[in-house]
Amino acid sequence: DGGITQSPKYLFRKEGQNVTLSCEQNLNHDAMYWYRQDPGQGLRLIYYSQIVNDFQKGDIAEGYSVSREKKESFPLTVTSAQKNPTAFYLCASSLLPGQGATSFSPLHFGNGTRLTVT
Amino acid sequence: KQEVTQIPAALSVPEGENLVLNCSFTDSAIYNLQWFRQDPGKGLTSLLLIQSSQREQTSGRLNASLDKSSGRSTLYIAASQPGDSATYLCAVTRSGRRALTFGSGTRLQVQP
């Protein structure tokens, strides 16, 4: 079945360590996104990418980095510079106009990674 | 800057009731609006997507409307069931920005 896979589901790290969250999709989508969700809040955009080897900062990019070396993969690194890294991280993908969609298509989400930093 | 607000933050209804969830946004220059469902500890599932040129979309017991000029959308759920219990989020794609801005969600509990 096509979908988005995030791993691991739970991740624990010590303060000061970098950690990388995995996101893989087999939907052949060009666009991929990383969001952060804090308790009782909506999702906030960290980074997004519309094409391989290119990505843009979202609203809260500080302390995070990404890469897009393959269409299927969009890993997120939470660096030690991120002041409040404990959160639920969600990866998503979508078609873009011209990729079989007349306009922006619905986002498909992974099941998330819950990161706890102590 | 686009802001998306959802009211109420939480809602509890008995099974079988029809209900309306509200979403408002500050910048009417949007490409589309989406409604999502999120179960606890899970990702989001897209329920309905309304393009900016449309006024409503329907899927089964769900109907979403969009009034772009007033910056409002509603999600109508008919004959609610306990399985509808979840958090419902709305999100807009802003013109010139190919990513969604989310509201904080409405947590729905349908009592059997």
Topology at a glance:
The complex is a heterodimer of chains A (118) and B (112).
Chain A: E1 4-7, E2 10-13, E3 19-25, E4 31-37, E5 43-51, E6 54-57, E7 64-66, E8 76-78, E9 87-94, E10 108-109, E11 113-117
Chain B: E1 4-7, E2 10-14, E3 19-25, E4 30-38, E5 44-51, E6 56-59, E7 62-67, E8 72-77, E9 86-94, E10 100-102, E11 106-111
Parallel strand pairs in B: 2-11
Antiparallel strand pairs in B: 1-3, 3-8, 4-5, 4-9, 6-7, 7-8, 9-10, 9-11
Architecture overview:
The complex is a heterodimer of chains A (118) and B (112). In chain A, strands 2, 4, 5, 6, 9, 10 and 11 form a 7-stranded mixed β-sheet that branches. In chain A, strands 1-3-8-7 form a 4-stranded antiparallel β-sheet, with no helix packed on it. With 118 residues, chain A is mainly beta. Chain A is globular and about 40 Å long. Chain A contains no helices and 11 strands. Chain B has 112 residues and is an all-beta fold. Chain B has no helices and 11 strands. In chain B, strands 2, 4, 5, 9, 10 and 11 form a 6-stranded mixed β-sheet that branches. In chain B, strands 1-3-8-7-6 form a 5-stranded antiparallel β-sheet, with no helix packed on it. In chain B, a hairpin with a 5-residue loop joins strand 4 (30-38) and strand 5.
